[in-house]
Each structure stands twice: as C-alpha cells, then as structure tokens.
Design goal:
Largest sheet of chain A: 5 strands, parallel
Largest interface: A-B, 46 and 37 residues
Strand content of chain B: 25-35%
Distance between the termini of chain B: 33 Å
Number of helices of chain A: 22
Shape of chain B: flat
Number of strands of chain B: 3
Strand order of the largest sheet of chain A: 10-17-11-12-13
Oligomer: heterodimer
Strand content of chain A: 15-25%
Strand order of the largest sheet of chain B: 2-1-3
Chain lengths: 932, 65
C-alpha cells in the first residue's frame, strides 16, 4: 500500500478459487462427484467435506471453491470429475492469482482474529484427549448445522456427555500463555454455550470454572443469572490439572476452592472457551499498510481516537483492534465507516451513476401470464419432472405461455425472460425456481427492464422448499410443484402494479445530549457535510466527561474535552442550544419536527426545528446510595468525588493512610440487576493514582468480580504489583461499614482465612452503579422503548446496536448503556454513520409491501395504532373526523393492522386478502385434481 | 388406503420461510404434504384465512412465524 490519506494505492492479490464466480450457481452438484474427502475447517475438523465445496451453507458469494492442497487434478493432473459434473461450465483449472489495484481515499482494517490454540498449554490435556475441546469446537458440536447435527455428543464415542466442565481463561490472562490480556468474549460465550447445551439436553450437568465472571455489557449479567437459575454451577477457581482416563476417556479436574481445599471431579467433556489472539495475517497487514501493532499484536488505538490506526486515513474495527464481542464489533465497523466518510465527504457520490429503466407501460385489462420453470441444473430437474410441470402450467387459465430455463438466474436467462415478456406481450410473470428471499429482486429488475412494474412477478419456490427437501419422492415433489404453481398463478391474476414510494429526507440531524457522545456524533455528522443541531439541557457542553481528571492510559481528559467543545462551537455546520428542553417531537423518519425551549428562567424562547433524523445521546448518571454512611460521613465518597479530590489536591495520600474501595454498590442487585462495566476500571485507576502519589498509602479494593476486560487487564496486574489489596466478597455477604474510635471501619469476610477482617479506612470510596437519567422528556416525547434496566433499547442487540426501535432515531453513549470513553466515541460515530446514510441518500424508499388505508372505510377506531409495532400509523383529521393514515416510510409491511381492522379499510400491498384467499382456493382446487 | 393429509402452511417471510429455505440448503428431508403461502408476518393472518383453508379441504394448517 502506498500513498496517504485521501489517496492510497492498494495492491491486492486474489487467490484462485478455480471456480468461475460469474458462472457458478451454487447448486452443489459438483461436490458429490469429488473423490477427495478432507477435514472440514468450518466444523473445526470434526467432520469431513470435499476438495471442491462451499465454505459453509450461508457463505457469500455462494460460489464453490477448490482446495488446491488436496485437489487431485491440481496436484497430479488426474480426475476433473467436478468439471464433468458442473452443468454451467464454471470449473476453471486455468485460474491464476489475480493482482488488483485499487485507488482509494481511506482504508478500514477489519482483519479479525484467531482463537488461541490450547495445544501448547500442556495442563489442559487438549492434545491428548479428544474430549477436551475448544469453545469454537463446542459451538460447532451444539450447532444444528454442525458435525453432530446439534446432538450434544463428545468426540471420543459420540455419546451424550452427562457432565460438562467449562474452564475459563484458557490461554488468557496468563503470562504462561503469553497473553496477559483478557479476551473479553469468553465468559459471555461460555455462558451462552452452557445455556444452549441445556436447551438441547436439559439434564446435562454443567460446571463453569472461572477466575472472574466478566459479564459486562448490556443484559449480560442477567444472562449469567439465567444460567445459574437453569442449574449451571459456577466455581471460582483456576484449574490446576486435567487428567485423562485412557479407558473411559473421561477427564478428572483438580482444582482448589476459594477456601483453600483441594478437590477432584470427573467430567465426560471439557470445554476450553479459548480466548482471542491476533491472526498470523495481522503482522503482514501491519507491514503492508505501515501501521503499528501493540505489545500483544493487536492494532490498539488512542482512547480519544478509538477507530484510528496510527496512520492518517487508516481506520480499524473489531477483533483486529482488541478482542470484542459482536455488538462492539458492529458498532466499531459503523463508526469506522463514519470516519472514512468524514475524510471523503467532499467527493461523495462522484463515481455513482444511476441505472435507468424504460418507462412502464399502462396495465392491460386482459391478463397474459407467463410461467418460467427453472431446472436449476439438476437441482430441480433431477427431482421434479420439469417438462410435465411446464405443460401443466400452460393449461392454467389465463396463462399465455410457459417455458423452461436451465438456470433462470443466469445473465442470458434474464435477457431471454425480458425478450419473452416483450415478444409474448406478457403482463404477469410467474417464476418457478428458488426462493424469493434471495432472487425476487433480480427478477423484479428483469421485469423493469422489460418495461413492466416490478410488482408483477410472483415467485414459486420449487427448489429450496421442494426438490431439495423431497429428493427421494419425485412424483410427490412434481405434484407439489404443480400445486404451488397453480396457487402462484391464482395470486398472479390479482396482483397489480404498485408504485415504490419515495419520501424525501430533511438533510439535517438533531443530536440530543451534549456530552462526549453527543458532541462526537454532531461533529461526525457535520464533518460528513450535513447540518446538525445539538441540544444540551445544561448550561454548558461536556456531560459526564467534566468529572474526569485523569485516565488509566494517562490522557488528560480535561484538555481533550476543551478541544472537542472548541471544535463543536466553531463548526459552521453545528448549531448548539444549551439550557435546552425538548418541548415536543413528532414526525417520522426523514421528517421530524421538534420544539425546543431554550434559555434560563429569565429569558425563555421556543425554537422549532425540522430535521430528518435524531440521535439520542442523553447519557446516564452515577447512582447515589443510601448505604455505607454515604452522605452522613464526609469521609465516604463516590469514586468520581475521590478523583476530583485527588486531582484538586484536596486529598493528599499520607503515609499509612488507608483507602478502602467497595465495588458494586447499588449494582448487580435487585434494583440494578446489571454490571455497569466501567466502575472496576475507575477504582483501579484511582488506586493506581494514590499509589503513584504515595506508595505507602494502603489501598484495599473489595470486589465481586474484577471487570478489567480487554487490555485493561494490564492495569489490574499493575495494581496488584503496586500492592493494592484485592479482597473478594459475596453478594450475600456484603461488607459492613461502622464509625468508631475516630475512624471508619470496614468489616469483610476473608474467604481464605475464613474469618472477618476489620480494616480501618481514612477514606471510603464507593463504586456505584451507573443509572439511566430519568428526567429526560425527549424519551417520552419520542416513545423510544427502553429495556428493563431503563436504558434505551436497540432494535437488535447484536446486529443493530445503535438503531432504536423507531426508524430514523439512533442511540449512543451511556443513554444506551454505561461505557468507557473509547466505547462512547465509537458508538457515537456509529450512530452518526447511520444518520448520515439517511441524510446522504436524501430519501427513504418504501417497498410496495406496505399497508394502505382507505379513509372512506376507516371509522377512526385507532385499533391499528394500538397494534402497530413500528409506530407507523397516525390519525389525521379528515372531513368526517379523524382517520388512520399510514406513515409509509415507517411501515414494514407486517400486516398486523390489516388483520385487526374491523372494517377492512387497511389492505396490504402485494399481500391482499383477495390474493391470499385466491391462493387458499387454488390449494383446495388442486386437491380435487390430484385425487382425480 | 393410507391417509395423506394435505397441509396448508402460512410462513413468515423473515423467520419460518427463511428456516424452510435453510432446511433445503441442508437437504433435510420432510414429507411432501405441505403447500406454503408466504406472508410478511404471521400478524397478517386473519382467522378467516384459517377457516377458508379448512373450507378448501385442508386437513391441517401450519402457521410458522
């Protein structure tokens, strides 16, 4: 890679797959003919595949690939069976590595990670015993598409293991393995795997051996409680030895309990939820791109620039950067896209040309339906009697013609279909082939090219849901294909051309909340070239970041905050409203209207804003407890108060001073049943600062699980080395604080000695929960749903972590869940990225599947509004009172409204009552024919 | 004569219809008695569709969503 930000030249070598991607239809006909069987890497070598195969069933592209290490022809010039089997002539042994050069302005590195191979960690017996498996191997074992079809079995004898042990931190958090960091994901996925295993086999006995359960992040602590409730046993212990019994292949684990007792227990299967390490390719990639990696081989980034590598114009996301779970990977990926878009905003759209289609003709009264039946090579034709089906279709009423295609999806078939439509003057098209889920858009485009409305096609799935699943019942499969076609033709008689609605988007954004996340989001949107309003309820910007004076990594947060505020205030595309209150917000995606009250009590004015999207960055606050003498004794502080006192010099650690910190105060309990993620890091940060100022000050941290995930583990290790004393307590055995003899006393049960410790405390610092801000009116005004913990709910935990349940409204920062500086920035960028997609498109397209309300039939009962899950219906004043109106941009086409509408005023595009009933009746008529 | 029930299926586009496709990709075999109507959500199903199915000689109705 050469060049610099805005102008990189990247050379990529693409290895040959020996299968032509443009010709392969993914039919899979080649594999059975391949004589070479090899271990399947996707199933972690627990099952076999062929030397020509697809990586896994959902692979994109679904093109097959020849493994050059095993292929007989590539190695010995014999065989070529696949080439003979392939009916589309896609096999190409002449393929050579291709060199491609790209000229790009920005680069995003998402090269991922590898899981740690436990083979070199002798104590886990992984090499010797087939019944010690990695977490990924267990994932495949429990997967329905895995080697054992989802039956929980152990590899040695394929029997169901009655007792399974999970051993955490295998190859993580240990200098022996060379991985001193915490891999962040292993606790989470181990708990998930345990729950999944119990769903498959409820009577399995599962034990998880762990050091700290690091279930930080939204909903995860509750998830671990769920595992506990379903009977999973959690044992806090680092396992010292695993012994294999050669006769039974069982495994005996030796471990030490918290009270120091040595125990042994035998299991049938041991799972090592192994951690993550950089992949081998990371180093080559860092050399090629000129970016540096950290001491562990990951591309770690700055706290305030979490997605930027140390070279301008190169951004990073996901496990390449630091081990992270799925939601964070997705967040970082969206965020990195925003960073690239900021850099490239001046050239946005300059290389795009829009495809043009011929004008649609008027819809003819008389129906001429064309039926195209696909062979899909032998995928359909090998089971279904296609010729018979084609003849049957030709005789159905109003069918003008029917024909067969070898591969309906191929490029030449598109031309043929398009020409046939014109030649035969067809006005409805039925394609009997594969699934509309993947192929409907392709045929819709073919119709448009032939001058027909895209809604005039109906697909029949005679492959995925017929020939593939009834491969031994040729006659019944043929009958089923005929029935399905007659049902589709019945529907096709009633389909109508429908317009795709386009709704304009007001090209401005409103960000609510002027903390770190809100400001970051506003800056990103503005840097991407769009106008942004930023509303903050306080008199100044900054939010919770104002309470930070130093960080674990040694940044100066005050300075960074000043820089950010300065940029926000001076940015020509950002308008800041402080002392702002949301009076009302209404509207929908692309078209919101907000009334803001701005100013203090002396002078208030209302500002009305029109904008296309909203970002909620309303933050969170620290819980103020009424326990441990907080508020009653001045020596009891919250962590951020301690930080302020240390920074201002009003607390100077003295020799023999004793500072006690208690973690999880008002946290991970009934009231706040979640882990606030960042409090452990804050405690360790303050402890290290005290030790730095005076090494002879004693610091005690009383904790339940130290959540020092990712590279934060380093500071946990450092704190222990500096002499910070960590004492664990149980939820049922909380520390007690009393005042006496001029000092505070903290009593806590020591688990190793088995008796109570009484620690004097000159200062007591409480790490309390981070809780949602309850006073925010915007949330109520927008009706954005919250999760049970009170934070805004994302529309999909893993895949849509910044989308709220309402289209056009995005969430980020602590309003979503407690998070650190770098995580907040990444999520703010992700929200800005999503908002900018909307703003730069300039319009929202509504698929014609959406609902339509006939206001002459509507009686204004509002039932539909009550049942619409997307807030996509509003009442609009008409002549005879209020009537329902669909907000096309927000409707998803589910049809719940149409079902509940008592007067049948609502109908669904492409799924009308008449069409569905016609299908049902065709189903009934087909039965009559079959029995004749 | 053995009983060959005729099953009418209403499958949600987003979940069960996708699952039925996945069953095909995995070549899982099941009896060929079902005829599927794809809908965008099972929330679309009106009681009348079910009754109409039975009136049109369905022996059973499968709703997957």
């Amino acid at each position: 890679m050469t060049g610099s930000a805005g102008n990189f030249r990247v050379t990529v070598e693409k290895r040959p797959r020996y299968v032509d991607e443009t010709k392969c239809t993914g039919c899979g006909f080649c594999s059975p003919y391949c004589p070479v069987t090899i271990p399947d890497p996707y199933n972690q070598h627990l099952s076999q595949k062929k030397a020509i195969d697809i990586l896994y069933t959902q692979a994109i592209p679904s093109t097959y690939c020849i493994d050059p290490d095993y292929c007989l022809f590539l190695n010995r010039k014999e065989c070529k069976q696949c080439s003979k089997a392939c009916q589309s002539g896609a096999i190409d042994f002449g393929q050579k590595p291709e060199i491609a050069t790209f000229q790009v302005g920005a680069v995003i590195l998402t090269a991922g990670f590898k899981d740690i191979n436990p083979a070199h960690l002798d104590m886990y017996c992984y090499k010797e015993s087939p019944n010690v498996v990695t977490g990924v191997e267990f994932e495949r074992i429990s997967s329905a598409s895995g080697p054992y079809l989802g039956n929980i079995s152990r590899p040695s004898d394929l029997k169901k293991p009655e007792k399974i042990a999970f051993i955490q931190c295998a190859g993580s958090r240990s200098s022996v393995s060379g991985n001193n960091y915490c891999s962040s994901v292993c606790c989470k996925y181990a708990v998930k795997d345990a729950i999944v295993a119990l769903e498959h086999e409820p009577d399995i006995d599962i034990t998880i051996f762990f050091m700290d359960m690091r279930m930080y992040g939204k909903g995860l602590d509750q998830f671990s409680e769920r595992a506990r409730a379903s009977g999973v046993t959690f044992i806090r212990s680092r396992v010292s030895e695993i012994r294999r019994d050669k006769n039974t292949e069982d495994l005996t684990i030796t471990y030490v309990t918290e009270d120091g007792a040595l125990r042994k227990e035998t299991f049938h299967l041991v799972v090592l939820p192994t951690g993550l390490r950089p992949s081998e390719g990371s180093f080559a990639l860092s050399r090629a791109t000129g970016i540096s990696l950290n001491e562990y081989g990951f591309c770690s980034t700055g706290l305030f620039d979490p997605l930027l590598a140390d070279k301008e114009g190169i951004f990073v996301a996901g496990g390449f950067r630091e081990p992270v779970a799925l939601p964070d990977s997705v967040i970082q990926a969206s965020g990195a896209a925003a960073c690239a878009s900021e850099l490239l905003s001046s050239v946005r759209g300059t290389r795009i040309s829009e495809k043009e289609f011929p004008q649609e003709g008027a819809d003819d009264e008389s129906l001429r339906i064309g039926v195209f039946v696909c062979h899909c090579g032998k995928n359909i034709a090998g089971v279904v009697d296609v010729e018979n089906v084609r003849k049957y279709a030709a005789d159905l009423p109003q069918v003008a013609m029917s024909t067969e295609n070898l591969y309906s999806c191929s490029e030449d078939a598109q031309t043929i279909i398009s020409e046939t439509i014109k030649k035969e003057n067809l006005n409805r098209v039925v394609i009997a082939a594969c699934t509309p889920r993947t192929h409907e858009p392709l045929f819709q485009e073919t119709l448009r090219e032939a001058g027909l409305n895209k809604c005039l096609v109906e697909m029949v799935n005679i492959r995925d849901q017929c020939s593939w699943v009834h491969s031994h019942e040729r006659q019944e499969a043929t009958t089923k294909a005929k029935d399905l076609i007659s049902m589709a033709v019945a529907k096709a008689r009633l389909i109508k051309p429908l317009d795709e609605l386009t709704i304009d988007v007001i090209p401005r954004a409103l960000v609510i909340g002027g903390g770190l996340s809100g400001m970051t989001a506003a800056l990103s949107i503005a840097d991407q070239g769009f106008t942004c309003y930023l509303a903050e309820k306080n008199s100044e910007l900054g939010g919770n970041l104002k309470n930070l004076y130093y960080t674990l990594r040694g940044n100066d947060p005050g300075h960074c905050l000043k820089q950010i505020i300065k940029r926000v205030l001076s940015h020509e595309k950002i308008t800041v409203y402080t002392n702002a209150e949301i009076e009302s917000i209404d509207g929908f995606i692309g078209n919101f209207r907000t009334a803001l009250t701005v100013g203090n009590s002396d002078k208030k004015e209302t500002v009305e804003l029109r904008h296309g999207t909203v970002i909620l960055a309303t933050g969170a606050k620290v819980h103020e407890p009424d326990e441990y003498l907080y508020g009653k004794d001045t020596r009891v502080l919250l962590q951020h108060e301690l930080e302020r006192n240390i920074a201002s010099g009003s607390y100077v650690p003295a020799d023999r001073d004793s500072v006690v910190m208690i973690q999880c105060v008002g946290s991970r309990n009934k009231e706040h049943p979640y882990c606030s993620s960042i409090c452990c890091s804050t405690a360790v940060k303050n402890a290290l600062k005290i030790k730095e100022l005076n090494p002879s000050t004693d610091v005690y941290i009383l904790y339940r699980d130290m959540n020092m995930y990712g590279f934060r583990e380093k500071y946990f290790t450092r704190a222990r080395n500096e002499g910070v004393v960590f004492i664990r307590y149980n939820r049922d055995n909380k520390p007690e604080v009393t005042e006496g003899e001029g000092s505070l006393w903290v009593r806590v049960k020591d688990r190793i000695l088995g008796n109570d410790l009484k620690i004097p405390a000159h200062l007591l610092a409480l790490s309390t929960a981070i809780v949602p801000t309850q006073d925010n009116r915007s949330e109520k005004a927008l009706a954005v749903p919250c999760s049970s913990d009170g934070f805004f709910m994302e529309s999909h935990v893993q895949l849509k972590p910044v989308d709220s349940y309402i289209d056009g409204i995005f969430i980020c920062g602590m309003a979503h869940f407690p998070k650190s500086i770098d995580e907040s920035i990444a999520q703010a960028k992700a929200a800005a990225s999503k908002a900018a997609i909307l703003l730069s498109k300039g319009h929202v397209k509504a698929e014609p599947i959406i609902s339509v309300c006939d206001s002459s039939k509507c009686i204004g009962c509002t039932l539909c509004i009550a049942f619409c899950p997307y807030g996509a219906i509003q009442m609009v004043k008409k002549e005879k009172g209020k009537r329902a109106e669909i907000i096309s941009a927000a409707c998803k086409g589910c049809g719940v409204c149409a079902t509940y509408c008592p007067t049948k005023a609502i109908s669904m595009g492409r799924f009308t009552d008449e069409q569905i009933n016609a299908q049902i009746e065709a189903f009934g008529a087909a039965i009559g024919k079959d029995s004749n | 004569m053995s009983f060959h029930p005729r099953i009418l299926g209403f499958l949600c586009h987003w979940c069960c219809y996708a699952a039925a496709d996945a069953a095909g990709v995995a070549r899982l075999q099941y009896p060929p008695n079902i005829r599927v109507i794809r809908i965008m959500c099972t929330g679309r199903i009106e009681p009348a569709f079910i009754l109409n199915g039975f009136m049109n000689r369905a022996d059973g109705i499968f709703v997957g969503g």
